[in-house]
Amino acid sequence: MVSGGADSSIRIWDLASTENNSKNYVLKASGSVERFYPFDSLAFLSSSYDHTLKIYSSTTLSPSASFELNSVIYSHALSPIASHLLVACATQHPTVRLVDLRSGANTHSLAGHQGAVLSVSWSPRHEHVLASGGTDGTVRLWDVRRSAAGDLGVLDMEDSVGIVGYDGLGTGARHRSRGKAHAGAVNGVIWTEEGDYIVSTGHDERIRVWDAAKGANTLANFGPSIKNTRLSSNIPLLAPTNLSPPGTEYLFYASEYEILVFELFSGTFIKKLRPPNLTSNPQPGNKKAINSRPQSRVMSLAWRGRSHVSFYSAHLDGMIRAWIPHTEEDAAAEADEEDQGVEVDEDYRSKRKRNALDDVYHDLTRRKITFS
């Protein structure tokens, strides 16, 4: 895993060796998880507030190329399926900047937003289609093959019907040029695994799920517990579909100091995850809890992989925390130990949970699992 921090450092972690040492299971590093370069497992991309996009070699730990965009970069995205090597960058400038890694050029910009662009995401189904969210409250769709005329329209939170056209993708239908996805800045945009839906998050403290083919708001309601105030990107984490029951998908959301788990399509609240030793509602006289809380803010989330039932969260206090399943058997065993007056050792508890992961993975559909 690769992480990038506010201290301008990038670190690489060997998760396999970390799991064998429970004392290091909470990783002491700053920052948000970066993405590996999909066509070369030994290379990865990073972007920074210093206006640069860089490609690194994980063997030499040195940059292979650097691209100057002359603007603060909030996030970047590389298509997981495309044959092209275009990197979309969300910057302080009100356009989506495209960098071609093959030619080393800033090929062109996609203009349409009326403010800074905070989040970008490529479709996992159509290699030339891109979604972006900005401070103007809009989520825009683009076809990068059309250059300056690549704007496919915006998502409108008031539209629960959508634009169908004669092919189901809006072809031949009216072009929606007006409408907002959120009543505030949009700092999170992501597609579901199959590309059927788009999920967006905004400063109006709402999560919205959109039918990608029609651009319709599915009206999923995630309730009033959503918190979203920072300008940096806040992209939800979607659990791999192979780890969920058929017809169900789970969404993990970084809501300030805790992680909220929802069912994606209904918005049903499932679980609240909180880092250890963090007081949910510190009392006015508890200065230690109040002073430590801002440093525990969750900055980003990353799933380990499709075959692993675990994910990671990066925090403002410079920690990367690992989250693993807590099975019903674990809860029953701990209850028995507490009833018998046995003090549960944290290292032993972590080791037991990790040993149960293989059994949990192969028995997901028959065993009820929650995260803790």
From TrEMBL:
WD repeats lie at residues 1-23, 110-145, 179-220. GO terms for biological process: proteasome-mediated ubiquitin-dependent protein catabolic process; protein polyubiquitination; transcription-coupled nucleotide-excision repair. GO terms for cellular component: Cul4A-RING E3 ubiquitin ligase complex; nucleotide-excision repair complex. It comes from the Eukaryota. Keywords: DNA damage, DNA repair, Repeat, WD repeat. The keyword Repeat applies. It holds the Pfam family WD40. InterPro entries: Rad28/ERCC8/Ckn1/ATCSA-1, WD40/YVTN_repeat-like_dom_sf, WD40_PAC1, WD40_repeat_CS, WD40_repeat_dom_sf, WD40_rpt. SMART domains: WD40. The keyword Thylakoid does not apply. This is WD40 repeat-like protein.
